[in-house]
Design a protein that fits this description.
single chain; 502 residues; alpha/beta; six-stranded mixed sheet; 22 strands; 33% helix; globular
Length: 502
């Protein structure tokens, strides 16, 4: 019998009056990629934080190579050969790629004085990025790169850490197929080196490609563990949710109306070049592309966060001057950003305060907020959208990722926006919560709204959008109707940059 490299026995942790993880018994084998799956709030990340030393357990035992250990900090975990990559990369924005990758393993010219050998660090980083097929400048600042690239840096950082156990929490939530292939190659290299991996993901197809075993968690408990080859997808979904979800993409067939948005020859910085498209009433259009293609830049331009250098934006047949988010809100545009924690929510404010944030004028005169009305509206959206909370007085930071996403959607639904820009709206949330988001989208378009859905998940774009636009190098290279959209066709345009008419 193979001795596990890590064994958990009867791990318990109470997080609140509403949630705890209970009696967790789990093993990680040498060189194994072990998937941990479950709905948002099932306890996956809580369990990983206990192993990583950032959250103390209440009771239970942890064994490393058969020996009992206490892990009371991330530094202790690293000394024991355990490191974690986070769903939201924990990088230094104003440090370079190389400085972040080698932050814990910087080469020194003089070990006594701890003088960093900068030229060696940059050279080592260039070699590493080339080896891992990550196309990034080692000296570029992290603040100037996208989320998918940041996640690759986080993984590269774990790769050079010499850890024997890596905990990967949603590493591919912002990846397209090309970035996933890079990760797949990295994981194969790690496995060959004897590294063991706990792998959290909501993407069941990639779990099948990468993982050896899968453990399902629900409501803070382990439901079961099986070899991945013995686990049918339908069974996995049922174990995760307790439900039989038959239609993962419940797209409505609605007749579209007049044009509500026209974009003519928009260029912005070095990112967007001559972007033109239109959006009709009750239409959902998808936008996708590889990291650096400019897909999120479109969202920020339309919401007035980033300025345009040239071109025009027409809203309801009127030239719109979108110089700030306030201008966009006045034009009836709502924006659910890719980074919900930094850009989408006020994490330390209460749930009802977040929901009313984009439309506070509805609840106030010049001087006084009608808090009763504000809370009543928030409560109605919590009930309507099935947001799992303790009370509306809870802080947004205490919610799971899926419920945080629903709060952001509730915020813009409260504002009565006509055009919704959803940037990676299902990033890092579970299957049941994704279906909830899709149903919210259906509810919006049924009532006459229009949606721009930006996503790296090609399946959901094909499943939920009337047409899919593909970006390459800041240009739209294809616009594909749903009836003709396939994974292969979209990836062809996203990776080759060929225009639809070539």
């Amino acid at each position: 019998m193979i001795e596990p490299v890590l064994r958990l026995e009867n791990i318990n942790k109470k997080m609140s009056d509403f949630f705890a993880i209970s009696n967790i018994n789990l093993e990680l084998l040498p060189g194994e990629v072990h998937a941990i799956v479950g709905e948002n709030g099932s306890g996956k990340s809580t369990l990983m934080r206990i192993i990583a030393g950032t959250l103390p357990k209440d009771s239970g035992s942890i064994y490393l190579n058969g020996n009992p250990v206490d892990i009371n900090s991330s530094n202790e975990a690293k000394k024991l050969g355990i490191t974690m990559t986070h769903q939201e990369p924990s990088l230094f924005e104003h440090f370079s790629v190389a400085e972040n990758v080698y932050f814990d393993n910087a080469p020194f010219s003089r070990h006594f004085l701890k003088t960093v050998n900068w030229s060696k660090m940059n050279a080592d980083c260039r070699k590493l990025l080339s080896k891992l097929n990550i196309h990034l400048d080692s000296q570029k600042l992290v603040k100037d790169i996208g989320n998918a690239q940041r996640q690759l840096i986080e993984i590269a950082k774990a790769y050079v850490s010499n850890a024997k156990i890596i905990l990967m929490d949603e590493p591919t939530s912002s990846f397209t197929e090309s970035e996933f292939i890079i990760l797949q190659d990295i994981i194969h290299e790690l496995k060959k080196s004897g590294v063991s991996i706990f792998y959290i993901s909501h993407r069941l197809d990639e779990i099948r490609q990468l993982c050896d075993r899968v453990t399902v968690m629900r409501d803070g408990e382990i439901i079961g563990t099986e070899s991945i080859c013995n686990m049918e997808t339908s069974k996995l979904i049922t174990m995760m949710t307790g439900l039989d979800i038959k239609n993962r993409y419940p797209k409505l067939s609605l007749k579209t109306g007049k044009e509500v948005l026209k974009v003519f020859n928009i260029s912005a910085g070095n990112t967007l070049k001559d972007i033109s498209f239109s959006l009709r009433r009750r239409e959902i259009i998808g936008i996708t592309g590889l990291a650096g293609s400019g897909k999120s830049k479109i969202a920020k331009v339309l919401f007035g966060v980033d300025r345009v250098d040239s071109g025009e934006i027409i809203v309801d047949n009127r030239l719109a001057s979108l110089r700030s988010p306030l201008d966009a809100i006045k034009e009836g545009i709502g924006y659910v950003p890719e980074d919900r924690q930094i850009e989408g929510l006020f994490m330390y404010l209460k749930i009802f305060e977040n929901i009313s944030a984009s439309s506070i004028s509805q609840f106030s005169n010049k001087y006084v907020i009608d808090s009763h009305k504000e809370k009543d509206i928030a409560t109605s959206f919590v009930d309507k959208l099935g947001i799992m909370i303790g009370t509306i007085y809870d802080k947004a930071e205490n919610l799971s990722g899926g419920n945080q996403q629903k709060v952001i959607l509730a915020k813009w639904m409260t504002s009565k926006s006509k055009i919704f820009i959803l940037d990676e709206p299902t990033r890092g949330i579970d299957i049941a919560a994704k279906v909830d988001v899709y149903n919210m989208m259906n509810d919006l378009v049924r009532k006459g709204a229009s949606i721009i859905m930006i996503s790296s998940d090609i399946d959901e774009l094909i499943g939920m959008c009337d047409r899919v636009m593909v970006l390459y190098g800041g240009k739209i290279v294809a616009s594909i109707p749903q009836s003709e959209a396939t994974q292969e066709k979209i990836m062809y345009y996203a990776t080759s940059g060929k225009h639809a008419d070539e």
